[in-house]
Amino acid sequence: MAAIVGYREDPELFARALGSYKSVKECRFVLVGVDGNEVPDMEMVQVFQNVSLSLPTCPTSLTNHEQTFPDHSAVIQVEKPLGELAMQTFEKLSTLDGNIHSSEMYSQTTIEHCCQLAREILSEYDLRLGQPDGVKHLCLFQPHLHKKGIMFTTFIFSIVIAEMIGVEYLWSSDSDTLVLPDSLQSTVETLAGDPTVGGGSSGLIVHNENDSLPAKLGSVVYWSELYMTRSTSTSSGTSDCQSGPSSAFRISALPAVLYPWYTQTILGHRMIVNEDRHLTTNLLMRGWTVTYVSDTLAATDTPTTMSRWIMQQVRWSRAGHIESFQQPRVYLLNNPLFFWAAIKREFGPLLGLLYILYYLFTGKSFAYFNWYDVGIRVSYTLLYNYTRNPDRGPSHSWFWVIPGLLFYNIPLPMIHLWSLITVFQDGWGTSMRATAELSKRGQAWKRWNDLGFFVVWMGVVGGTAARMAATHLGWTDEGVFLAIVWGICIPAAVSLYGLVICE
């Protein structure tokens, strides 16, 4: 079965996402979870009900069309998020018992209670689940909480529905993801082929690469850099992150991990934005293997502006920091290559940042650097992806690969540092794509708070590049100093105007 979650998604994009499931192989049930019960949130429910899958292209209008799932469909309102009910249940159990060593037992009882609540809610409707004429497409919505909240509720209902209809595997995706005909089947087949595998995720491509220049460059990053990064950790035999847009789970593995995943705290701070990585960590800590099905693809949406891209990368990087350091025991349970991939991911960008700062202030290098190495890296990136990646790459990828690598790697060191400094910030960073959300443009001071670090970093990069060029040309010390000043001021001013003031 498939579960799709979202909050105030762009209606046309959501309609395309739902429409993509029409051609999916071996999907017996589709469950949609909407986080929100206000008027703007009902737009997603309306898409579920009103947009026809039989049309060749999804219309922008949401009226006067056949239903998305004209037969065997239903909509259910969940009065209170099950995640919050789970926390109340756990607290009551621990208060009554008082045995702190029984948290595992409390978690199990809590999940069983939530599943029973889901059964009672389902029993209120004549759904005939598992019957030939029963509901096969269900949409549920609840009061707005956060992505983790709607995922928890959807997972609980998925466990119950899977038991009723007799399925073993769950595909989980976002409301902006388009699945391909074999996305679900090929990913699940990889899980089914090994009883030790608790979860996996497919590769990703970008379906909106032609929307803007940042989207085009982002698609190159997915094609080249991220594909190789994921492959590095997977060479150890397991993956450290299931991608939210394209994940699959062995349903029997979920009950034990859902409560500790939902209630994760770091130094007393509740974590709510690293849902994908922490779910993977919980599976690994319980002995499950997590796979990266690199030969299978799904299509996701990438930010169309530079500011949204940066804030997305910051959010992802925060999750990476938390999961890399919170459970060091996970490295003892896996191949040493798994640890090497984590070390490379965590300390590589920081070393790059120190290298740039040291050269800017001293004019000297503390590490070896050679442009031939850069050329070799670009060459093997192209060769590896052209020969190994099932995605043939964005159009004219040979032209875009170097700009794409610069687009990703230049901001990376400062994104890495800033996300480490602000690791406990819970904001999503980017607004949702629904009309009501896009109109909420942040004030200049708020945008400076979100993106000021990038403005400063562009000044540092510009000053470093200016110093490198002036030194190479043999300028005097005074000339080098002036070059650094102008190199700092111009890129910083341009990025300040473009990202904070105008965009």
TrEMBL record:
Domain Glycosyltransferase 2-like: 174-369
GO MF entries: hyaluronan synthase activity
Extent of the signal sequence: none
Swiss-Prot/TrEMBL keywords: Cell membrane, Glycosyltransferase, Membrane, Transferase, Transmembrane, Transmembrane helix
The UniProt record lists the keyword Transmembrane helix: yes
Localization per Swiss-Prot or TrEMBL: Cell membrane
Family: Belongs to the NodC/HAS family.
Protein name as it appears in the record: Glycosyltransferase 2-like domain-containing protein
